[in-house]
Amino acid sequence: INAIYVTINTINTASVLSSNSNQFAFIHLQSEKHGCVSRQQYREYKGARLTNLGSGNYSARVRATSLAGNGSWTDSVFFYVPPPKRDDGVTFYLVIIIPIIVTLFIASLTTILFFVNKKRNSDRLGNGVLYASVNPEYISAAEMYVPDEWEVAREKITMHRELGQGSFGMVYEGIAKGVVKDEPETRVAIKTVNESASMRERIEFLNEASVMKEFNCHHVVRLLGVVSQGQPTLVIMELMTRGDLKSHLRSLRKENSTSQVLPPLKKMIQMAGEIADGMAYLNANKFVHRDLAARNCMVAEDFTVKIGDFGMTRDIYETDYYRKGGKGLLPVRWMSPESLKDGVFTTMSDVWSFGVVLWEIATLAEQPYQGMSNEQVLRFVMEGGLLDKPDNCPDMLFELMRMCWQYNPKMRPAFLEIISSIKDELDPPFREMSFFYSEENKPPDTEELDMEVENMENIPLDPASTRQPSAAIVVSSSGCTGGTPPPSAQQLSPMQGPSTPLLGPVSHSPPGPVASALSSPGQALDKHSGHVSANGPVVVLRPNFDEMQPYAHMNGGRKNERALPLPQSSAC
């Protein structure tokens, strides 16, 4: 057994008073500590372990101890235990100061965020009124679909085969009983909504189809019924067995057909007349289509072309659309300059799209502006660029396109005027079935027409269009009656150029490229005859669309100021 002997050396000073002089004596203090080290501890530590030693000088020695007695001491081993090092306050900072700093930082950040959020809410709420956000799973009563007389019992509908994918779900061909008067069974197109669709999407599907409830025109695809009770939701449409016009035109290409591939001019004019008639009906009912294209026109079994169901074919031809600035998808290749620039959609922007549809017919549904990206098309059209004339396109058809592509929307012809210019080339059934020849299509009041023309200012959308010649007839007082010009009147040639753009009978006054003239006091206008009385003012009258009219054709920034007539059926 090992024993430990520890000598603790400390030095203290004491003052010793001497009678002879001041002296200092050093007193050597010594203390011993004994301890035993067992064999187990020795094996564990490979020797003796001294603990809890303060700073100072030490000496240690050992000896063996047994029942027989004690052995001799070994020589002393001297060692020094230094005092603990000073940390100069580092531990203090780590333990005390840093947590305090972190706590203050978090508190400051929380306070700043609180006041910023409070300020933001104050700006948003204004007078302190609280607005609750709408839960998308809840639908207002105004958005709910209410079943009406168009509701069809589900058991009357039988699905047969798939026709294709629609924007909301699959489209099937099927049989519907009792949806058409005097027909026990009718072949129909059945549109469905996906099973995963939310309630809001189902109602949107029904409401979009419900737009067609207001329409009753032979050249607009008819809605036949709705199945809103139960699942899945169904919309019953008139079946157009030959699909959309775009697919039909492409099927006529040489590589897809062994028969006659190019439709004759008369057939293309027939398609144009049927589409224009459907659009004229929508226009008369204050409806702007906004997405007129061959893909949205449908072809019936007898090749009649009709305006398709609105907005339901977007997913099928998704590449025809472009998302501008994170907004909704836009059919930029069919859009007018004002629609691209300002987002304005009117019946005149539909006329522009109609011109692109004519181009699709003449090219058997090629993509407009081939080789250009959607962004390039957007800039090109806004700068006045137009589509080129298709190969082998009849002049009459291309002239009709050019009129539809007037940069100024007020210079484009209305759909009724388009039909009027080609009506003699349309099939006899057109007269019986069309909106154009129906009682519903009544000519407007003379006064209303005059007011419309009076407000028909040539306001350009682009500075380059300010040089467009005026589409007006200037008549001065000459005492003429019955529409016959006075002997002194001059008939201007439509090819005289921009220096003489006025058409129709004029006076001896030098003509100028203006759309109106100064009025004189005491004059009156005979609106019905289109002339003025002896004291009447010089006025602007809208010319007959059968006459030559100056349309400014802009192509890539270049202007062609040749006066263009509306194509006449005799040109076919």
UniProtKB/TrEMBL annotation:
Protein kinase domain location: 157-430
InterPro entries linked: FN3_sf, Ig-like_fold, Kinase-like_dom_sf, Prot_kinase_dom, Protein_kinase_ATP_BS, RTK, Ser-Thr/Tyr_kinase_cat_dom, Tyr_kinase_AS
Leader sequence residues: none
Gene3D superfamilies xref list: Immunoglobulins, Phosphorylase Kinase, domain 1, Transferase(Phosphotransferase) domain 1
Gene Ontology terms: biological process: glucose homeostasis; insulin-like growth factor receptor signaling pathway; positive regulation of MAPK cascade; positive regulation of phosphatidylinositol 3-kinase/protein kinase B signal transduction; regulation of JNK cascade
Location of the protein in the cell: Cell membrane
Catalysed reaction equations from the record: L-tyrosyl-[protein] + ATP = O-phospho-L-tyrosyl-[protein] + ADP + H(+)
Biased composition regions of type Polar residues, renumbered to the chain: 465-479, 489-499
GO cellular component, one term: axon
Entry's EC annotation: 2.7.10.1
Membrane-spanning residues: 92-116
UniProt keywords, alphabetically: ATP-binding, Cell membrane, Cleavage on pair of basic residues, Disulfide bond, Glycoprotein, Kinase, Membrane, Nucleotide-binding, Phosphoprotein, Receptor, Repeat, Transferase, Transmembrane, Transmembrane helix, Tyrosine-protein kinase
Molecular function terms, GO-annotated: ATP binding; insulin receptor activity; insulin receptor substrate binding
Membrane topology according to the record: Single-pass type I membrane protein
Pfam families hit by this protein: PK_Tyr_Ser-Thr
This protein's record includes keyword tRNA-binding: no
Family statement drawn from the similarity comment of this UniProt entry: Belongs to the protein kinase superfamily. Tyr protein kinase family. Insulin receptor subfamily.
Protein name per Swiss-Prot or TrEMBL: Tyrosine-protein kinase receptor
Origin organism lineage: Eukaryota, Metazoa, Chordata, Craniata, Vertebrata
